[in-house]
Amino acid sequence: MSNLSRINTSHLARWWRSIDRVTLICVGILIGFGYILMLAASPAVAVRIGASRDMFIFKQVVFLVLAAVIVCTTSLLSLRGVRMVGWIGFVLALGATFLTLVHGIEIKGARRWIALPMMSVQPSEFLKPFFAVVTAWLLTERKTRAYFPGLLVALGLFALVLLLLKSQPDIGMLSVITTVFLAQLFVDGLSLFLVGAGVASMVAAFIGAYMVFPHVRSRVERFLHPAVGDHYQIDTALRAFGNGGLLGRGPGEGRVKDLLPDAHADFVFAVAGEEFGMLVCLFIIGVFATIVIRTLLKLLRENDPFIAVATAGLVTGFGLQAFVNMGSTLHLIPTKGMTLPFISYGGSSAMSVALTIGLVLALTRNRPNENRFGQFTPAPSPAQRVSS
């Protein structure tokens, strides 16, 4: 590490000294669990659909390696780079999400994916991190420029995103982005009365979704009335947790997991419960909690409003996604097809979450000599400090 000492002013050395290494280690742990659990969960699923036993494993290894590269590369960005990537990415993701309505793949009545040669992509996954960065810039820039309509533009973009997601439909993603936006408005200084009004609007929207969309109504009714409808996946997941007990059956020894249709994706947490037990599940929850809580605590000392608002939105989306996945698997909330960050199978999810954490790391870096435009002023040398 001598090349990364404090007298080294290279970009890589500054990055290493300024990055939140605890969060970086937590991400590495989650990626490691993603690989281990894919080895355990995916072969039975692959055989069930007539594919090679190793198909999902090979693909997920590629996804996780790319995710690790994206995290490290994105975390190198300056504040100016974060804003630029946010705007460019948001425009591209918005256009691709609109494209799903025209040329998207329809699965279970929803058009959320675009077919590519080796995989399918869900563009709305990438809307989450880029939307958080763009709205953070709009909300905070209006406080430094007179007559800048940042709030109105942010509300307009939010309405456009909601319209696209409703048209797919993707109520889960719509709920996540709405929560992210409300969290950003709160951090930006919105009054508690208006925040309450926003929460009330979310409740009203949820009731409307229950009335309008049959699949939402079905999931809610199955959650509230266990005797109604098909509960195969939930019942099997709960059996897997019970079979694992405190310490688990051991790697590769789980049997209930082989009966789970989505063991490699939405219900991968149940595989962790069966093979590694409750203690490891609590450890995984602790890793997610460490990332979220540590990031929020860092914001208490943050003076830059853009960093505070953008990071709050990013980490809210990340934490909410993890909570929804684990809560659904444990039958604490109605089921929702949402992946467990870095652990569930899926290219779009892995890339999107990697971008989210990379942007969080870039925003929360310790950068005492960098201004809001990303320009670096070298720190004075020891000799200069002594002479001064």
From TrEMBL:
Membrane topology recorded in Swiss-Prot or TrEMBL: Multi-pass membrane protein
First-listed, main subcellular location of the protein, grouped into a coarse class: membrane
GO MF annotations in UniProt: lipid-linked peptidoglycan transporter activity; peptidoglycan glycosyltransferase activity
Keyword Cell wall biogenesis/degradation: no
Parts forming coiled coils: none
Protein family membership: Belongs to the SEDS family. FtsW subfamily.
Protein name: Probable peptidoglycan glycosyltransferase FtsW
The organism of origin for this protein: Komagataeibacter sucrofermentans
